[in-house]
Amino acid sequence: MDADLRILLVVWILSTMGASPELASEVTVPLVPVDAVEGRSVKFPCDVSSPNHADKVYMVFWFKDDSGVPLYSFDVRGMPLDQAHHYSAPDVLGERAKFQTDTEPACLDVNEVQWNDKGVYRCRVDFRNSATKSFRYNLSVIKSIRGKRLWTKIENDVVHYIIVFDGVWAIRRFEIPLYA
Ligand SMILES: *[C@@H]1O[C@H](CO)[C@@H](O)[C@H](O)[C@H]1NC(C)=O
User: Fold this and answer.
1) Does 20 have pLDDT greater than 90?
2) Which PROSITE patterns would you find in this protein's record (predicted)?
3) CATH entry 1.10.3720.10 includes domain 19-144
């Protein structure tokens, strides 16, 4: 099947599902898998730098799963970056989330990750003039470490584990920053 036909097919499938044209463009944003351990923290990078130096970030929204209501918004309109207005929906991440713009790239930091936090997170960056940018993450939450540790390695301040979880015949490999 050629590429144009495939794109048409995807657009057609989405339109039959009643999705908006905006969602159709989201399909092209890669979904990055992220693992977090329950009770620990996790970071979702979201680069707010503009492709055009004269342009500036305007608003940043975070969405979860199919919800059209942002769980986090970062409003820079008419303000310097460090005075932007932050809002985190209390029924989703609430005070556990903070959008940090003093890091490169900017990140949504989520503390005390809970089991129900798993799902797909999308960051949408709106600029004054440039095209909107999006990033997507699929967060898997790993129950805190109670399994049998098979292998550990520390590299660049990151602990790598392979663990067999209690009662689960699966081996998961994940990485925890030493100073998280
Ligand atoms: C997200 O990851 C989980 C666990 O690996 C997987 O079961 C699920 O299908 C993924 N979601 C999407 C939308 O790809």
Assistant:
1) no
2) IG_LIKE
3) no
